[in-house]
Each structure stands twice: as C-alpha cells, then as structure tokens.
Batch of 3 targets.
Target 1
Amino acid sequence: MSEDSNNNCDNNYDIDIEKLKYVGEKRAKLYHKLFVFKIKDLLYYCPRTYINLTESVDIVNAPADQNVVLKVLITRKQAPMPTSRKGLVIYKIFARDSTSEIVITLFNEPYSFNKLEINEQYFVFGKITRNFYNQKVYLEISSPLIYKASETPKFVAIYQLTAGLTSKIISRNVCDALKLPGIIKEYLPDWILKKAKLVNLNQAIKNIHFPRSLKEIEESKKRIAFDELFIFSLCLILIKKNNLKSTSFVIKDTDLSDFYNILPFELTTAQNKVIDEIKKDMQREVPMSRLLQGDVGSGKTAVAMASIYLAYKNGIQSAFMAPTEILAWQHFDSIKELMSSVGLRVGLLAGSMSQKKKNIVKEKLMMGLIDVVVGTHAILQDDVVFKNLGLVITDEQHRFGVKQRAKLSEKGKEPHKLIMSATPIPRTLSMIMYGDLDISIIDKSPSNRKPVLTYYINESKRQRAYNFVKKLIDEGRQAYIVCPAIEDNETSDLKAVLKFGEDLKNNEFKDYKVEIIHGKTRAYDKDMIMQDFKDKKIDLLISTTVIEVGIDVPNAAVIVIEDAERFGLSQLHQLRGRVGRGKHQSYCLLISETRSLDSINKLKTMTKTNDGFKISEYDLQIRGPGDFFGSRQHGLPQFKNSDMIKDVKLLKLSQDIVSEILEKDLYLEKKRTSGTKKNSF
C-alpha cells in the first residue's frame, strides 16, 4: 500500500482488497469469489475451523482415512519424479517420529518441497493411507498441510477456500492487514462490553485469526457474532419505530359478546389470548402490525373474524386477502354465513367474477356499503377504492410479496395490519424474519380435533395402503394421493403425478371418481376440481403440492404421500393438514423406499408428533433457515459469522441492549466516545 494510504488511518478499513500488500488485481478476483472486496471484509472473513497442533498423534497409532496431526522429523527427500501425465510432477519426502516412518507425497508443489529442511521438525495435517509396495506395507500422507514446528502457533486457521487461494495465503494477508495503522476501532461503549461480557473488537479480530487457546477462539466468536446480531437488531427496531405513524382507526367499542354468541363452538384459551392482544393493539394510536402464527387447524380464521367484528363495531372497513380464489371463496362463505346475522355486510372480489359483479362490489366499497371484502389479488387493482379501510388481513402471507401487501395497506390511511401464517415458524426465526412485527401464536388446536394418525411404510406395503384408502372411500370418506413431480424424468425415479396418476385412475382406482391436478393445471380448472372435491363429487384427488394450501374439506380422511423423503418436514406437515378437519379419524401414510438413515429418522419424526412447531424446529436444524424458507423469496439475512439457532441467547441479548439504547436515545443523536465510561450510545 502507498505511504499516503498508511497515513490515512481512517480509510484503511474501507480500502479495496487489491491494494493490500501482496494481493494485487489477480488475487483480488479470487477474493471476490468469497465476497471479500474490502480490507474490512477480509478481517471479518472468519476461519471455518482450526487445526489444534497440540493434539498430534504417533504415526503408529494414527487411524487410517481420518485427518490427523503428526509431529515428524524430515529424514530425506527423494528427487522429483515427472510422470507420463503431462505437467504432473510427484515429490516424495520421508519423515519419522519415535514410533514409525511415513512418506509425504506432494503433487506439483516445487516451492513447498524445496522449503522443507532435512533434520527439521514439522507438523503435518492430513489423512494417512496404508499402501503396499515391493511386498511391504508403507504409510503415506498425500498433499497434507505442513507447518514448521519452531515457527507455528498451537492453532492454525482453516478458511473456506476457492481455487487459487490457500489458508496460508489468507492468514498472511490478514496478518498484513492487521499491521495497518488504526485498522480496528472499537465502536461499542464500555457498558455494553461489560453487560454482554464481550472482549474488545481489536482483540476479537486478532484472536479469531491467530488464536492461542480455545478460550480465545470462543471469546472472539462470541464478540463477532454479537456485532452481526446487534447491528441487525438495531436496524430492525429502528425500522419498527420509524413506522410508528398515527392511525385514524383507534377502536373504542371493544364489546365482542355478540360475536361470541354467534360462534357454534367455544374459543380456545390461545385464541382468546390472541384476540386480547389484537384488541389492545387496535386501541392504540399507532396502527397494529401483528403476525398471527397458528398451526394447521388451530383456528386462525376465527381470530381474524373477531378482528373484523371489532373493526365493524367501530365503523371501520376490512379487507381480507387470500392467495387463491378457492380459498377466497371459502373465507367469503364462512364469514358471510357466520356474521351476516349481526349485520356485517360481506363482499367478494375474485378474478373469475364478471366485470359487472366486480363493478357493483367496487361501488359499494367506495360508498361504505360493504364492511369487509374478501378476495385475491383482484383487491389490489387501482380502481378498488375504500371509504375507510382500517383493517387489512393477509392469509398465508408468504404467498404474497412485500409490495403486494404494502399496496393493499396503502388503500387506507395507516390501517391496522394482521398477517396470518399456517407455516409454524419457530419463535427464533420469527424474531429474525418479522422483527418489525409483533407476534402472536396459537399453539393449541381446538379440543374437538382428533390428531391425524401418521404411518411411515415402505414400498412392500403400498398395496395395503391403497386397500386402506379404498376402505375409507367405501365408508363415504375422501382421499388425497400426493406425488413430488409433475412429469416423468429419465434421470429420476420420482413418482410423477401425470403418468402415475393416470395409472392409478385407470387401474387401481378405476371403480372410483378420480381427478388429477398439478401446478400447470389452469387456475380456473384447478379451482373447479377443488370445488368438486369439496362437494363430494370426487372420491380421490391425485396431485402435487398444489394442495398444500387448499380448501377445508372435512370429509377428506386420508392422505398418501409418495416418495415422502423428498419433502421437507414442514411441507409434509402442511400436506398432512389437508386431512383431520372433520369429525372422522384421519390418517397420513408416508410411502418411501429410502435407505438413508437421516431420511428414515425424518419420516419417523412425523409419526411421533402432530405439533407443527416441534416439527419446524427439527426441520430448521436439519436444513437451516435459508433452505427452510428459500432465502431469496423470504428476505432472510445472510449471516456470515452468527447462527440464529445456536446464537439465540446472543440474539435476545443484542435485542435487549438495543432496546435499552433506544430508550435513552431514540434517534442515536447524543454524542458518544467509543470505549469510554462517560459515553452514552
């Protein structure tokens, strides 16, 4: 780096990586593949693991085909051996300890070979193999990591790499970066470091790359993870506080007795608790922003109706947006059937409606003659105007984009927002995904719901499963069979709904009324088939996961899921939720030929519990949050040095500290001096 750069201490942190000593343009391009663009990115590019050189083993006791650390003395070096393979040169070095001898083999590494000194001790890290040559067994370790014993610390950092970069190169570059003047500046005040029991940033960055003990590694990991979670928590809470605008829809009449009287069932304790939370939110002068999580069949719709009734009692219009037309019709029918008796006027807006009917609904909405409108994306059209929209409810929120939800809210003046999700997202992940929302959870289903009995069976019992399905249909019930694919693929043995479904329709279930649907089925046809299924015109529905979020069919009593190991646990649970909605005992049959122990354990988990939150916690541990939701679709943050599951206590601590900071200084306007006791944050 230039002399000017060295003198300008404040800028060293943000300098391009290519300007660092010994990096240059060519190596910088390799760093870019690791998303390292600035010197600060390099400093925070933490090792993925460490080699503990204090845990060396004797050669004679070293297990084969496992990474081990050996401490050996180089005894001789064999002349380089060119091979018939163009450009390949083999280098062999002989070494030993007090127990045995070993051959170190390098490929095309003349620099490493020449650097090794005879009669010098080295640490060697790699896998040992036992080979047979000239009727003798000899031990060999190929392409190991080699460190001079007299110059190497106890712990060696190992990084996630790309071709052309080694852990040694990264360590050397980090070392050079740390020598820059003023490179690391503490930004947290002493009171936070003390409260969170954190080491200072300078110490953490140095020790994460060049630790001297396990304690230093743990302390450094904690500090760097905290920083990531702290900044995220700060941004999230500031967004939430900046969104606290006044609403014109403060409710005053909170009497729900008429609503409770018309319910044909008694609400659960969990439902009543959530309704109280919503009631308190809607009485405040800032709009409600609440996420309502509830497992399949937990009674979220009843809570939504209570919210709509609260709005209606206070002269406020509501909008209820569903992801599919068939679901919109279902909600419309439910709300109209239940709440018309108390005077609530219900409207529907759906794509399949005639323009004339749509125009009538739009006119009534504008005039305030409809109290709640239920619909699909049709509600979002520019010509849909409300007189006083004060409550917006979104069902299955992950099916809508952020802009779509925002567009619906913009049709009112800071309306209350209730976002519902049947995906049982664990609390930890909810805090991350929806940190700008308050969260309510319905964690118990109505007592009249019978748990779905779930069985994992292999291919040999398929016929028994089908016979069981026929038995239930003969008793008047209905059934689903779900396949993971739409069409056959030459490279895959997955059950495909088109061919497999036609085979079942024409053979095994030829005496029954069978229909097939999948993602490529036209929306109108799909809705018609689903409605026919609900109306008991179809005995068996064969489909892909398009039924994952479907209509309520109380008469459906069994679902068979083919190639069940191909689905995530939470998706299996969602599919299982298609049955068990009526008075009859329901069943879920998971058919799989898998021999993978992990997959078998996953499927057995489904047979042990119907608790969606437990299932999603387990699924999250297996798959990680990005895969669990699809990071791009759901906007999950890409944490580099922290884990939202393992670091949940640290996340909670960071949120508590952020809340404490903002209580003292909401907009972070007070002057502070980092690292001093006098400062305020």
Note: Confidence is low (pLDDT under 50) at residues 2-9, 627-635, 673-681.
Target 2
Amino acid sequence: MLPPLRFVLCGSVDDGKSTLIGRLLHECRAVFEDQARAAAEASRRYGTQGDATDLALLMDGLMAEREQGITIDVAYRRFETPRRQFFVADAPGHEQYTRNMATGASTADLAVVLVDAEKGVLPQTARHSRIAGMLGIRHVVLAVNKMDRVAWDPARFDAIAAAYEAVATETGITRTQAIPLSALDGGGVTRRAAPAAWFSGPTLLEHLETVEIAPPAGEAAFRMPVQYVNRPNPGFRGYCGRIAAGAVAPGDRVRIFPSGAETAVARIVVWKGERERAERGDSVTLVLKDDRDVSRGDVIAAADDPVEVADQFQAQLLWMGDEPLVVGRPYRLKLHTRETGAAVTRIKHRLDVVDGRTRPAPTLGLNDIGSVNLATDRPLPFARYEDNRTLGGFILLDRRTGTTVGAGMIRFPLMRAANVRWQDFEVTRENRARALGQHPRCLWLTGLSGSGKSTIANLIEQRLVAEGKHTFVLDGDNVRHGLNRDLGFTEADRAENIRRVAEVARLMVDAGLIVIVSFISPYRSERDYARGLFEPGDFREIFVDAPLETCEARDPKGLYARARRAEVKNFTGISSPYEPPEAPDLRLDTATESPERCVDRVLESLA
C-alpha cells in the first residue's frame, strides 16, 4: 500500500467541490449511517437535487453554508480504498475566504483544482493555483467538472486543459493531470464515463490511488524540532518531538541548534518501549548521550548536515488579518515549535494572484500575497520552505489577541545570526547603576497630544535631578528633529518611530539612567513591544489621561484646529486612532489633577 495521501480540493464558487468529495465518500463507503440520514434530512430542506440526497451536504457542515450553498470553512474528511488512505480538505471557493483555502493547502501533498466545464478557467482558479504552488504543492489534478452539461465535448475539455497549463507553468506546478468528470452522477470520478470514450486517462480515484509524491530533497537529513523536555524523574531527561526529516538511530551524532552543541543519540523512547530506528513523521523521545542545554523550539539535527540559523529572512507572506499589515509593527512568529517576536521590515512587492505580476505595495491587505523582509527577536533554526515545510513555514500572530494574521514561507536568510553576535564587556549594567547610585528605569508617558506629557516629563526630570539622580528625557518632537527625522505619521512610520525610541531607551537604561519617554505612542502593540525590551520592573507605562475635548481646548500647537480642517493627516484622536492602555502601571488624570500633583504620584510610585 502506498503512503497516505493528503490533498486539498479547491476551485471557484459553485464548481461542485463539495459534491465531488461527497461522491468520493459515498462511493468509497466512508459515510456513516447517521451522516447519511443527516444529509438526507438536510437535502429536503436545503438540497438542490429534488428527492435525491444532495451529496454536497455531506461536507457543508455549517448552517450558514447550507443556507447559502457555499463552503465557508475548511472541512476535513478521511476515507480509504484497498490501495490507499486519503485525507481531504474541502476548501472554500469564495474570494473572501481565500485564507481558509490556504489553511487547507498548507498540509496537502496534492491539489485537485476543480473547473466548471461551462465557465472554464476563472480568476479564482488562478488564485488558488498560485497559493497551492506557493505552499509547495507540485502535483495538481485539473478536474473539469460538469462535463455532462457540455455533452462531454472533447474540444471543450482540451481548451480548458490548455488554458490551465499556462497557469500551472507560471506557479511552479510541475505535474498536472487533467480529467473530465461529472461529480453529480460519478462519471470520471470512480468509474469511467461512457460518453467520454475519447479520454484514455485515469478516473480521478485511480489517479489518487496511484500517484507517488516524492519528499523534497531537503528532507533527507535528520531534523527534529523539540516540542517538550520530558523529565518525569531526576534520572531521566528526554526530548520529545516529531521527526521533520530523515531518520535517526542510537549512536548517531547530532547537533543542537541554535547553540551548535554536539552529542550523540543514546536511546529512542516511545510508548512502552524503545526503538532502534525512527524516521520522518514518527513522534519520539530522544535521550542524548551527553548533558546538553536543550529547550523547546531547539532543533536536533544530523551533525554532518546541520540546519541554518538566522534572524533575518526573505519570505513570501499571505496576509490573513482583517487589518492591513503594518511594516515595523511587532507581531509574534511561530516557526515549528519556536515562538518569538518579529516584524516585517520591508515589503518588496505584492503578487497579483490572477495574472502573476508583481506590483509595489506599501502594505498588504486581506488575502494579499507579498514578498517581504522579516526580522526576528532571536536567531531561529530553519530550512527553506521548498526544502522542508515544517522548518520553513511560519505564521504571524497579533501580539495582543493571539489571532493568526499571516502565513509565510521562508525563501532564504538575509543575514545569518553567526555574522552578528552580542559583544560582552566587563563593565555591566549593574556596575553602572551602582556607580550612579540609582535604580535605572524607563518611565513611558503615553497620551493624546495636549494631555500634558511633556509638561509632566519636564517636572519629573527637574525633581529627580534635584535629588541627585541621573536622567534623560526622550520627547516625541525632539526626537523627530534628528533620529527619526526621516519618518512621517503613517501607521508604519509610527511603528518604526516607537521601535527606535524603545531601543534607545533600553540602551540608556543599560547605561544606568532613569529615562523619561514622552510619546503619544498610540498603539498598544508598540507599547507592549517596548515593555518587552526591559527586565521586569524596569518599565513603567504611565497613562497621561485627558478627554479629547480637554486636549483640543488646550491645543498648545494649534494642531487640533488644523486637523479639523483636514490640513494635518493621520492626527491621533481625529483621523487616526488612540488605543488607551488597558492596565497601565499608573494613570494620571490631568483634567482634574495639577501637574505638580501628578509628578508627586509618579515619584511616590517609584519609591
């Protein structure tokens, strides 16, 4: 029996995807009695086949899908024949749910691209094919459905196959098998269709049963991301994970990445026993010969064929967030079992998924695909996606909500982590703090323009200097005269503005200073990023709070009046949002409290 086949079924709306999978499940006897009864009942209410069971409803599980007659979510099913086991993902066809299609394709070995014989190749056909190619799928079945509606015309089939071949060539798909069929009556699906005697190729099921998917060349050497460090007792330490490539046996020399430490495998432990060999896809616990520092997210790899380690990459990114991508904004990145902070530093171009052309783009919106430069907070062991999906595919998460906003594929490193290292010096931050006789900290004042941040920052510094403290104020306006003079006020520029200031503030705290940062810093994600640069207790978020009407009445620079006249774009509070802190370390109400009283409260909180 051949290895199991994972495939995704995709295409445009109403091409018949759910009906086709329903036909496969029905013919392969993979439908339970209760499912058949549910589908029959649903057919009476929502079906399109009269008294007959609508096989599409075996897949359309959501009520919204049944009522609208479209697939929204990705539905997964398992079935098998005497020759092979199958796992199929029914992907949505509507452009709005393209990100769901990418989810279904991310683990597939093959794509079945469905085309309506009457409509031919559509923009969504090209879109799904390009995404499949981007995700590393090289085998495609072009299923030309509803051939009964065009009287099984061979000329029509040949024209569609030729049109699709041009799309496949551009997307990197190397093996295409076109098959005429009718999902409604099963012709060309599991049995040959009598009206298509002119077609000498296989039925869909015959092809799926016999197609061989060769693993990428990069999956020959052993790699295993560590998912869990297992220490049930002081005498046992094992490293659990699923082997992403190659094979391993006791005695094999391995290296741990990113550290590069070398050792050997002592034992391979599995449930209730041990093994003499494990290979790609096996979940095992490795016991190492020597005591090495190994953590979740590290990669254990063959010593003579190590993985690469880098912290800057070029990647292809499918944007899945409802809000656009912001260059420079901090996100969370998950690559195999490792999670770290990351930011897109540049969008090189956006790909038009219909015609395949690239176009410049300042941002990426929902379902856009772009080529981007990416920087991570720490070095990551990785592989190019084309060599290994597990070590080369990542997702981006919103730092606050944890929702997935992007899915990406590493193409190559921009700078290997070994080229840039932290340089250690004998004089430490603690030495500098003792020399200055103070506890270095960052006081981060955030609030609307006119709320009183600069006034309070000025008074705080005066009081601290009078007490003999060593301080420095980083003010939003002052910094834009030099360090950040190249930045505007777009969302991406604001994110970069805060990133630079946060890094400077961290260096100043390392120097032993008490740093007072006075910036509007309107977005929570950027403020959270800044906090993450500091040791616990060294960063205090101080919300300088005043109602918009109060700030506007003060309007010391006349900016609110200009913003109301649309003379100033992207002005916080008027044409750009301000996200107030949800749990600040200190809140100052400058509408009811004097600046002096606010400063007293800040210093009391420090004491």
Note: The chain is about 25% helix and 30% strand.
Target 3
Amino acid sequence: MTGKTRIEQQTGEPCHHLHQFPFALLRTLFGLLFLMSATAVAAQISPGALSRAHQSLGGPTNCASCHKFGGQAALKCLDCHTEIASRLNQHAGLHATYNMSAGTSRECAKCHSEHNGEDFPLVKWNIQAFDHRQTGYPLEGKHAGLSCNRCHAPAHISPQEQSIIKVKDLRRTYLGLSTNCASCHQDPHNGRLGNTCQQCHNFVDWKSIDAARFNHSITRYPLTGLHALVGCAKCHTPGSDNKPRYTGIAFNTCSDCHNDPHRGSFSQTCESCHTTGGWKKVSLQSVAEKFDHSRTKFPLKGKHERVSCVQCHASGDFKKPLAFARCMDCHKPDPHGGQFSKRADGGECASCHTVEGWKPSLFTVKDHASTAYPLKGGHARLQCAQCHTPKGKETLFKMKFERCTDCHSDRHAAQFAGAPYFNACDRCHTVDSYKPSTFSLAQHQQTRFILAGGHIAVSCADCHKESGSFQPKPAVVYHWVDLNCTTCHQDPHKGQFKSRMQQVKADGTPAGCEACHSTTSWKELSRFDHATTKFPLVGAHRATACIDCHKPPNLETKLINVDFSSASTKCEDCHADAHGKQFAKADITHCAECHNTAKWKPALFDHEVRTSFPLRGAHQNVRCGACHKSFRTVGGKNVLFYKPTPKECAACHGATIPASTSTKSMY
C-alpha cells in the first residue's frame, strides 16, 4: 500500500490538486463510479441473467413482475401465462397431468429454470420420448405416425384460442388445438351429421365405417324393426359423384324404396297393415277398423287379440269355418304330452289357463288337494316350478311321490340308507319344515350311543358336524365306526394314559377316557384308583389335592397340561425341609426315616438307636421340647435344632442333684 487514495493512484497527483482537473473530467469519473456501484448491487440481488424470452423483464426494478414479496417469496408465472392457468383450472392439457395445484406458480420452476443466462432454453422437449397420452389425447391409428407440425400448426388453431396464447409465433406453441376432428380435417358431410366423427369412423381407416356406433335415431329417419339390420349402402347409394349419398334420399313413403307387391290393389298405405318388424307381421289395427271379430262366434280376447290373422286363417280363406269349441282344436299338439288326458274334462286347457296368458296357471293348492298328493305344510308354500321343473314340453306333472327321496336328494350321504331307516325322511322330519328334526332323546337311547350324564344336555350340532369326507358334497356326520371318547374329544393328556385307556370294559369296548372320567363331569374321577399306580395314596396323602403333587407348567391353574408321570414318590421332592437340613445326608434329608404318611407327629425317630443318649427311666416321659430348646433362623424361619444338646445332668437339672437321681443310678 502506498498510502494514496484510488484517485491519487489513478491520476498520480495528490488530492489537494483535484481542483485543477477540468469539471467535465470529474463528472465522467463520478458517473463511472455510480455505474460500477449499481452493477455491484444488481449482481447481489439477481442470481443470474434472464433468458432471452424474459429479457424485457431485466433489471432490479422489475423483480416484482415475476416474484411476489412479503412473507415467503413466491413466483407469479401464471399471472402472465394465463393460457396455462386456464388449462390447470379446467384440469385439461399436459400441465394438469403433473398434479400441479391450480392458482399457484410454485411448481413451475421444477421444469422451467430462470436466471441461467440469455441462451438457456426454458423449454426442453424430447420429441421422440414424449408420451402424447399425458396431454389427454392419445395418438391412435394413423395419428401415431404423424410429425408434430402436421397437427400443431397455426392454421389448426381457432381465432379464439389464438387471442389468449402469449406466444406470438404460433409455430412455436403446442397449445390451442381442439380434439374435434374438423379442426384438422375437412367435414365431407358439411355438418349434417354433427361434429363427432368417432360415432361412425375410427383412427385407423376413414372408410371403415362402424355403423353400429352411429345413432341413426338422431336423423330424420330413425331405423326401427328390420330396417336396423339393413346395410348402409342399401339405402345410401352413390350419387352423381360416385360417393354415398347421405342427403336428398326420399323416405316419406315405403314405395320410395320398396316395390308394391300388391300392384295398386289396396288404396291404403303399406303401414296401414304392415310394420317394419316384418312384412308378414300384419297390423291388426287397420283390419280391426274394418272388421269387428266380436260379432263372430269367437270374439278375440286376451292374448288372442294380438294373434296374427294367418295364424288361425292359415289358408287365407276367411269364409272357411274353423273349429274352436275346445282349446285343443287350435293348440296342437298337447304341450303336456297327454299327462291330463284321463281327467274328467279330458285335459281341457281352460281348466288351468285363460286367454289372458299361459301363465300363471289357475291350478291352486286347493285344486292340488284333489290329486293323489295333497300339498301340506311347507309343500303348500312351494312354487309349482320347484317340483315340476320347467322343461317346456318335457315338463313332468305326473310324478313319483311315494318316498321323500323321489323329489329330495339324500342330504345325509346314504348314512340312513340301510336298516332300520331305509332313507325314510319322515322318521325324523315333517312336511312342515326340514328343521327342527323330530328325532328325540328317547330315540337316541335306542342307538349304539346312549346319551348319559353331561351328554344329555349337549346340542345335536356340537357332536353332529359337517365333514368334507363325504363326496360329492360335505354332509353332517351321524354314524361313527368308533364311538370312543377320542372320536369327538381330543386327548388332553397326550397319550400319558394310553395303556389305561386301552383296558376293555364289560361290553368288550375300550374304556377310553372313561377309565378315569365319567360323562357326568370331566372332573369326576371316581373311576381312577391311585392305588394302582406306583404311589398309592395313604394317610394324609389321601386328602391332598391332585394339583399339590402334579404341578402344572407355566404357573397354570388347571391340570390340562400336566405330566402326571413326572411326579416324584419321595417326600423330600415335594415337602420342604422343616429342620433346616440338620439331618441332611449329601444335602438331602430323607423324611421317611422319622415320619410317615399318617401324620407328621409324633415322629418315628428312635432315640434309643439313633442317638448317643438313650431315653430311660424318667426321661422316657419327657417331651422333646423340654430338652431341645435351641432355635435358629433358617431361610427367614425359626427352626428348632436338635444338635448339639448337652448330655450332662447339670445342664438341665442344675448343680445340686440328689444321689438317688445321679446318672449312675439312671443308666
């Protein structure tokens, strides 16, 4: 550093000589300094130069044109690009498929990044990879092979759309096109058939017309009856230009298209007698206007009013007499195949039907009571077709009914086909309803499995459940080969008593669970004799609860998962050592050496044999506690210790002992 100012460095003169500079030079210098300062400030505000499309918005004073300040800064793209905003609001066009929120420009910068310089492209297109379906207009058929500018051309954009598109050069925009075919293609029908070309044409071939898609009813000549089956070219014949005509075709009268087969014999129009449903379907309205059939011996009523004349007057000779006294005079052959020919009326149709219609039949439940099979109970509520299956002329009305299975399938999979039931459904069911069954408890007692104890109160469905072992359909099981308990009940003991369960009862069958339990109650175990085990219960053990010896796992309160064979037969395995291990041998106290199962006291301890202090004389009647008085705390309990106990008389009787009671006289 030289210690000079920047001006001094640039001019080479000290500052106090600046007054000698011309005024114009000073003004130039200050102008340069101002421009340099403004450029530095703008560089600090703007992250970079704008693209060429936005050059008119450059400069620090135009920031608010694109950015909204106050709070969190936001973009204002859609304020200018209203054509995009309009499509977003309508959920139409490409941008709408990007799930952009309408009314906000926050997501525009994800694709259109600014401040990257004048030559940076704001819009990037990969024409080859672009999926046109995203615009809402998939390119199908011949559209798929066209170049973009074939459709996206200024000539195809309507003046209304051109007025709202911001891009001045319409060759550079993809907006503004209509999905209407006529926006690109000339309408050869000149608007006569509307603007929805797809109702007849497709995108593959213009000449391939799908007549089924065109609604001819919107024209002045709706197609009805057989006209709907006529090919388009039959009516739309070529005109002078050798192209199909869709206008100027006469259709006011039938004779415009059809020749008169009557050659002018009838003055009335064709539609007076005929319809588009078929030439042979003669309209009776015109005939009725001239001929009143009610004046004949056979007035037309019901369905007869709609019968064509030629169905009765087959030869066309209306003067020829017809037989009509009986329905069967006309209605032949008998649709029931003579099933009712033996009835008193010979099977006359009018007994069950009317001229109003073949269905419903007049034959009621009351009439059915006069047949060999009166309908009772649930049968009276059935529809005829449930028994007399409709098969047209093959429908059977004379049916077998001696056995229920003549109509009903065997729902029990032949379990009752043999003796004593022989599939006689009425042994357990009635015609009132299939359920409930009439099979009673008294009847159950006649089966191989007599219900006793708790089984009497069990619902039928608890034992008789549906099984998939029957084919072709599952059925409820009523017969079992094995009537052992385990057929229905799982063995909760997992085979621990298998040998006991295989013992044979008086009737020669395995005892099963009943070797220990009864049907009265699962907890009733009077049949189990513990004396037959390796550990007969005697003495105080007889009153001990099972769970006190047979301990359930995992702190359970039931014996369901107990391993009964694991119970020990040794006292010390179940009972705690009450003596604090003072009699233990190899850390085990053998209780049976002093006690038995009768009761804990008095003990069997033999003081004469097992100690060095035999009890004789007056000592024989002394209580144990009179000599053994030493207590210790073991495991939180106060335990009487028998050793060591002094043997000297003075230890119990004091120093003054009469001679007659000396130890020498005692032992």
Note: Residues 23-45 form the longest helix (23 residues).
